[in-house]
Design a protein that fits this description.
The chain has one domain. The protein is 61% helix and 14% strand. It is built from three helices and two strands. It has a two-stranded antiparallel ribbon. The radius of gyration is 21 Å and the shape is flat.
Length: 84
């Protein structure tokens, strides 16, 4: 009898969502590592300088968190209502 191999890639390749997620992650990593120069930006009176490889994912995470919070705040009003 054959034993199941835990490192078998056939199960990984058969799932399209997993493949798409993997490709997106690889593309994002390529974009991040191509943008390593230092950038400066101003927020009100402060001038902040940081590598773009940190700024880009930080901006993405802040946007995701704010979007999630806003969706939760606005979505809760409609859950309890019954549509006639």
């Amino acid at each position: 009898m054959k034993e199941k191999n835990t490192t078998d890639l056939k199960g990984f390749v058969k799932k399209p969502k997993t493949i798409v997620a993997f490709v997106i992650i690889v593309l994002l990593l390529i974009i991040f590592f191509q943008n390593t120069q230092v950038v400066s930006f101003r927020i009100f009176f402060w001038k902040i300088s940081m590598p773009q490889i940190i700024l880009t994912p930080l901006t993405m995470v802040i946007g995701l968190v704010l979007g999630y919070i806003i969706a939760k705040m606005t979505g809760n009003r409609h859950k309890g209502k019954i549509h006639d």
